[in-house]
Amino acid sequence: MTAPVPPAPAARPAANAAARTAAPAPAGEGPGSGRTVVVAGGGIAGLTTALALAQRGFSVSLAERTTAFTEVGAGLQISPNAYRVLAGLGLDADLANVMTFPESVDLHGASGTRLARVPLGGQATARWGAPYGVLHRADLIAVLARAALASPAITVHTGMRALRAAPGPAGMRLETSGGPLDGEAVIAADGVWSQLRNALSGAATARQTGRIAYRTTVPAEALPAGLVDLRVHAHMFPDAHVIRYPISGGRQINIVVVTASPWFVEDWSSPASLDEVNTLARTFDSDLQRLLAGATGWTRWPLAGVPADAVWNDAGLALIGDAAHATLPFAAQGAAMAIEDAAVLAHHLAAGRSVPGALAAYAAARRPRAQRIQALSEKNGQIYHMGALTALARDTALRLMSEDALMRRLDWLYGWRPPAGP
Ligand SMILES: Cc1cc2nc3c(=O)[nH]c(=O)nc-3n(C[C@H](O)[C@H](O)[C@H](O)COP(=O)(O)OP(=O)(O)OC[C@H]3O[C@@H](n4cnc5c(N)ncnc54)[C@H](O)[C@@H]3O)c2cc1C
After folding, report:
1. The domain containing residue 364 runs over which residues?
2. For 393-404, how does the pLDDT look when each residue is reduced to its tens digit (9 = 90+)?
3. Sheet bearing 171-176, strands edge to edge
4. From ligand 1's centre to the CA of 71, what distance in Å?
5. Closest protein CA for atom 39 of ligand 1
6. In this structure, is residue 91 part of a structural domain?
7. Element (DSSP H or E) covering residue 85
8. pLDDT (tens digit, 9 = 90+) per residue, 320-369?
9. Domain count, the chain
10. Which among 14, 120, 316, 416 would be 20 to 30 A from 287, CA to CA?
């Protein structure tokens, strides 16, 4: 089944949906090199991979198990390293329609006092060469999916579950619930619970991290004055932290509460009771309690991880995004890494090596960075959740850090650039 074009995001000037309505062409009929790649999964990793490959002349068949591109009601921070890749795919005008560009990330201690501030806005763009934006996850998926559906080189099959990948007549064959898809490589972008990962000898399995995220969005107009601004706020408490920032052009506030929990199921999300969040909120400062008082519609997410040091590829199959290296969200880099992966994978496949050589080069190029980001996320989690005594030292250290010093620590992360070349 071919996907319907998702609706255009809420209009701001410079709407460009008209260029996005071309019908998808079957694989092989695109303008490309005659080379076809199959992508399993139509999340951020899969859609970005399809677009990056199409940009380099490949034809792409993409199988997504859901019948329409949908996303949970939650926000996403897109840091400059990822924004740069999306802009390189020609998506910056579409993103500008749905993104908010916060002024800063503010870090707060348990009393609510601001301890430190990482400037964003114009300073982020000047320092890292691309903006830092926040948006609704559904808006990013809609931008990516519309571009994929408009590309004559990409055939999108929704309602088609990937079952297994094996060598086939064109090199590799993806068996799906809707029949086989053939190409020279299969890219598994099927998320943290990846089914295709099982076919790789030596691949990791998703593991419990002992943490859980509660997420919701609240209409900004329902919140007390003074609690709504154009910033990302991180509030740190013993064993918990809260992230909040505006999305949907400032009309909604995205709220994430993370805490320790043994709860773990193989699932993305399920509804959470208000009691669970209210019990946690009793330990929060009064401003945050006022903010959370109006919040409903919580979902809870067991935070699972996939260690980046295991096998990601074999001769014709490679993992990408969360399937390869799902990480704790404490550096807000999971989607960013998926987007970076897509650019690097497309670069290596286009570079003229054999497919096994290209997939190996992709994994070798990406693994050290994925490991470093996983380590950073883990460390951030420990810092955010420090107990009251160690938090005193943390708070003092943060108060003493200059904005420039805080930005410098992020240069390696946000200053990343995709490989130059084909
Ligand atoms: C609380 C929280 C906050 C976060 N905040 C941020 C943030 O601010 N910034 C950031 O960069 N990252 C953030 N992340 C991480 C980010 O959400 C993930 O890293 C990202 O969504 C991974 O994208 P993906 O495409 O690899 O996987 P997914 O989003 O899981 O997509 C996988 C896709 O594959 C499909 N699929 C699965 N199995 C099959 C199959 N067998 N056949 C066909 N299709 C299949 C699924 O339906 C889905 O569409 C956060 C994560 C959490 C939990």
Report:
1. 24-101+136-205+306-383
2. 999 999 999 999
3. 162-168, 171-176, 179-183
4. 9
5. 190
6. yes
7. helix 80-88
8. 999 999 999 999 999 999 999 999 999 999 998 899 999 999 999 999 99
9. 1
10. 120
